[in-house]
Amino acid sequence: MNTIIKINNLTKSYGSLNALVNVNLELKKGKIIGLLGPNGSGKTTLIKVLTGLLKQYSGTVYIDGHLKSNKSKALISYLPDQLFFDSWMKIKDLKNYYKDMYTDFDHDRFQVLLKKFKIEDRVYIKKLSKGNQEKLQLALVLSRRAKIYIFDEPIGGVDPALRQIILDTIMNEHEPDSTVLLSTHQIYDVESLFDEVIFLKEGRVLLHKPIDELIETSGMSLLETFKEVFKYA
Ligand SMILES: Nc1ncnc2c1ncn2[C@@H]1O[C@H](COP(=O)(O)OP(=O)(O)OP(=O)(O)O)[C@@H](O)[C@H]1O
């Protein structure tokens, strides 16, 4: 089966606010997919449902052919939009924690990535610059041999040079044949990377298309299409 994520009639409300409304999506193995939409369109909410952080919703979510469960979380390596570790730890302690926590953690790949990022594993996390903490977090996420990688704003708030390093690393270091779902507002930087894009608007899927098809039918770049679709009145 070629489908890795299947979402049927997913609706998620926070009180009276509908953050996701009747979302239906089918994501294929091996694809790099952009999850795009304006602020508040539901991207993080969708990601939190997929990663198991949100459990209260209606609809069904299948991961690799099985109804989403605690087990399916093990298939997903997730980079949240905020730093997720305790900064008082040393990097090597964090690495050991990851090794214990995730059976798919590839220690050698982690060391290679640390070397690439010029980060020593003897140091305390709090001594790293914010940019290096972002790189460390990315190295941890990419060092899992996961079937699905989900990145929520991996390049928000970092300078253009680091943005490029982060994107290159995501593109080159994820497990072959895995699916990458990446949410960002920095569309200009990512447009050449995606196989497919999803546009979310007010919790609804506006479109889900191969990027070539989108660019061909609209006659515009992804960024121009985004601006046109989401232009404010
Ligand atoms: N914990 C929460 N409680 C109440 N409302 C929430 C909560 N989390 C998100 N929302 C609301 O749900 C809607 C969708 O939010 P979400 O964070 O999923 O959007 P987003 O597309 O990721 O936005 P951004 O691009 O700004 O990060 C927004 O209206 C937001 O205010």
Q: Would you tell me which CATH topology applies?
A: Rossmann fold
As a percent range, the share of helical residues equals 25-40%
In total, the number of domains comes to: 1
Strand content: 25-35%
Structural class: alpha/beta
N-C termini distance: 43 Å
Query: Are any ligands bound, and if so which?
Result: adenosine-5'-triphosphate
> Which segments are poorly predicted (pLDDT under 50) over 5 or more consecutive residues?
none
Multimer state: single chain
**What is the class in the CATH system?**
Alpha Beta
- Helical element count? 9
Report on the architecture of this protein.
A six-stranded mixed sheet has the order 6-7-8-3-9-10, sandwiched between helices. A four-stranded antiparallel sheet has the order 2-1-4-5, with helices on one face. It contains nine helices and ten strands. It has helices at 43-50, 70-73, 91-101, 107-116, 130-142, 160-173, 187-190, 211-218, 222-229; strands spanning 3-14, 17-28, 32-36, 58-63, 66-67, 76-79, 148-152, 179-183, 196-201, 204-210. The mean pLDDT is 91. The chain has one domain: 3-Layer(aba) Sandwich (Rossmann fold). The chain starts with a strand and ends with a helix. With 233 residues, it is an alpha/beta fold. Helix 6 links the parallel strand 7 and strand 8. The protein is 34% helix and 27% strand. Adenosine-5'-triphosphate (ATP) binds next to strand 2 and helix 1. Residues 14, 17, 19, 37, 39-45 line the site of adenosine-5'-triphosphate (ATP). This is ABC transporter ATP-binding protein. Keywords: ATP-binding, Nucleotide-binding, Transport. GO terms for molecular function: ATP binding; ATP hydrolysis activity.
